[in-house]
Predict the 3D structure of the following.
Amino acid sequence: MAWFSRRRRAKDTPMLGRSDGPLMDIDRKAVEAHLRGFVESRRGVEAYVEPATSVTPTTVVLIAWDGEWTRRAVGARKDAFEVAQRLGVPVYDVNHTGYPNRMREWNSRQRRGGS
């Protein structure tokens, strides 16, 4: 007898509109509104698509020219590229390009308490 059967869980748990990563309900309108606000209030924004993992769904990281960034779950990989296209920003697959150095530099400045 299996106490924790995947087959049973998959059958009994409703899908929440997700196709990759863990089951998660994503408010797509709120996500896109947040990302749009970031793009409209900063210069030189680029999008980086992060793959789903066993604990996180597919995400988009927006990175501005100075390295400031924001991350939001978007659902499937296809959704990530579509959101970036609607926002009118260049989009990259982080598995192919990695993250830009300006993001790491911004994180370092934030840890030191500088702007």
